[in-house]
Amino acid sequence: MARITVFAALSAVGSFIHPPSPVQSVAFDSAPGFFVALYFGPLDGFCVLGLGHLATAVVSGFPFGILHLPIAAGLACAGAATGWINRKWNFIPAIATGIAINTALVPLAIPVLGVVGTLDFVPFLFLAAVLNGVLATAAYVGVRGRI
């Protein structure tokens, strides 16, 4: 429980760091969750990625309103999938899956951004997911076997 709380807090800190994007809820909130999923496994990844997105939603003023709940659920599933795949195979397909699920959640933005706005948003979301994934993977590779 303490580990999940600490990494969820790191997600909240990351929610203040925004790569360029037209939507302010895109942030470095997923990196701690991806790291936890890789290092500690699917359950921790599920919890931290879900809570991390909710923290970002609060910080950014809920730009998608109630839609942040299914987005958080989708990210929680991305954390679980990342942790599970890492245990079965290795971190490369695991983080690729997490990035893919993160980006695949973009249709949830259609009610707020419209179809064209959502399509314009995809590259920004994908870039943020990749940056979060690369940061988490670099940390994981750097510390695995040491902690």
What does this structure look like?
There is one protein chain. The chain has 147 residues and is mostly helical. It has one domain: Arp2/3 complex 21 kDa subunit ARPC3, CATH 1.10.1760. The chain contains six helices and no strands. α2 runs antiparallel to α3 and α5 runs antiparallel to α6. The longest helix has 34 residues. The protein is globular.
Sum this structure up briefly.
With 147 residues, the chain is an all-alpha fold. The protein has helices at residues 2-14, 30-40, 42-60, 68-88, 91-104, 110-143. The chain has one domain: Arp2/3 complex 21 kDa subunit ARPC3 (Orthogonal Bundle), CATH 1.10.1760.20.
Q: List low-confidence stretches.
A: none
CATH C-level name: Mainly Alpha
Largest sheet: none
Query: Helical percent range?
Result: over 70%
- Tertiary shape: globular
- Which CATH architecture is right? Orthogonal Bundle
**Remind me, CATH topology?**
Arp2/3 complex 21 kDa subunit ARPC3
- What's the alpha carbon Rg, rounded to whole Å? 14 Å
The total count of helices amounts to 6
* N→C terminal distance: 18 Å
Number of strands: 0
Count of folded domains: 1
Portion of residues in beta strands equals under 5%
Order of helices and strands: HHHHHH
Average predicted confidence as pLDDT: 91
- Structural category: mainly alpha
